[in-house]
Request: fold
Amino acid sequence: MTGSPENEIYICRCEEVTREEILAAIADGATTVKGVKIRTEAGMGLCQGRTCRRLISQMLARTRPPSDIYPPTIRTPVRTAKIREYTNGEDDL
Reply:
């Protein structure tokens, strides 16, 4: 696994996480995208995983039995907030 040019490919370009690092996280026990994220910081860059989440999911699917893969959890906002709630009603912005 180490030393292969294929493993030096960046999966998460924002955080510069390589395929090798993702595979190491999976070998370390990561069974979800979140598990990979915790171990490697993949998906924590500017795009918040919009470009790498799918690739990481595919890598998990290839290396784990389907019963060991858990669906990703995405936290949605509890409620929408208006901008004025954050500006204390100030209009001089």
Remarks:
- Helices lie at 19-27, 33-40, 53-63, 83-87.
- Residues 5-87 form a domain with the Arc Repressor Mutant, subunit A fold (CATH 1.10.10).
- The first helix runs from residue 19 to 27.
- The two ends are 53 Å apart (CA to CA).
